[in-house]
Amino acid sequence: MTIEDIRRILEAEVVAGEYLLGQKVATVCGSDLMSDVLAFARPKAVLLTGMTNSQVVRTAEMADLAGICFVRDKRPGQETVELAESKDIPLLTTPLSMFESCGRLWKEGFVGGSEYED
Amino acid sequence: MISDNRISKVQELVYEIRVGDVMQSDVITVAPETPMSQLRGILKKERISGIPVVNGDRLAGIISIEDFIKWLADREEDCSIAEKMSKNVHTLYADEPLTHAVNMFQLLGFGRFAVIDRQDKRLLGIITKGDIVRGLLKKLEIDHVEGEDIYRHKVSRFFDNILADQVVLLFQYDVAGHDFKHAGEGASRLKTTLRRLGLAPQIVRRVAIATYEAEMNLIIYTDGGKIRVRVGPDEILVIVRDSGPGIADVEKALQPGYSTAPEWVRELGFGAGMGLCNIKKCANKMDLMSSVGKGTQLYIRISTNDGAEREAV
User: Do residues B123 and B27 touch, judged by C-beta distance below 8 A?
Assistant: First the structure.
């Protein structure tokens, strides 16, 4: 699966990193708590979150995540977008809620970090 | 920002790339005794505007389309190319940096230069402005794709040149307190550096996460501090030091979920009392020493040998 698959399934809009849509995605994690993401997200996971500050991108950078999708149509500020572009981390935004986003991705075959095997 | 980097990269490249790297070496040449009347056919067939005139393998001159037009306009008798060619030819050596070629094009306004060997003066090729642009673009493209790999390659070569029984590297990152905007810059720079050193991705990831959490703690709770990183042959040691306020109850601070973070930090997705637990999870060994009013020292040790088994946890 790729970032483009996530974009399609979540009817999301690309906010940053159009050129990274082909990037591989291993699994998905949903959280607004960055420490939880740092503790439990797998490398190459896509993060679903309602937070839009630049530390979300920093978290993705540190944890080797494949990308970030903001839920409920949240849009990050310029600072977050610029940081994401400089770190080659794609940003999406979906009108769907966190629950619906997770549900759709699960239905399409994505599994969580605990079930994912490299 | 990207374009600025690109410009400096081009500046760097014109010193790095040699004339011989971008010239066309498959050159059409003519002999000096070739009649002018044959020149038209050659220029037309090859779609070129100038040809080196070669005697044996030595450059005798250059004959251009301008020379040919002048000869036609003057309605002169047919004669050998040798009589009409420019003999005083400016040449470039194949081993010269591209910047010299760029200067010569600018200075003399020529469309092309013959490229010769510095030692035996043999004609090696021809270079136009187009060749320079093509050469630079190609090199930039390669560098863009392989940018980080090139850094890694350069760093590993640097290490080959260090003669010692053991090499230890020290890095320091200064962190300003309460500066949430720049939070993570230290950890980010450290992460890039460790990757360039060629350390395994899963090791780098653990160091990055632990350092990021520690940096966050400095920003949230202190007036700032220093992160010192010691990269040895078997272990990476990250020492995080600040000068206050200190932790009143270290044991409590280590409990998952225990937090004294202010509301503004929690609103940003941090301060949930997981930082130290996360650091501990990433580390092979973590030591925390603190005294109230004086400051805190955190020692994070990560072995560089057991990446694979730790990652599985």
Answer: yes
